[in-house]
Give the backbone structure.
Amino acid sequence: MQDAERSRILLPTIQVRWSPEQAAFVAWSEQCPELTYSDPASSLVALDGLIGAATDTGM
């Protein structure tokens, strides 16, 4: 959870849903809806990827 602490996205604002159109789990945050991350096999990977992307962009 160190990445979550460095990120400004609050964990309670993150959502992960299955997207039939993308055939993947898609994670996004209500705080920053333009930043998303998807993974075809795992909702946890989508969540972790979103946190990593937010950290990489300085959010």
Notes: The mean pLDDT is 85.
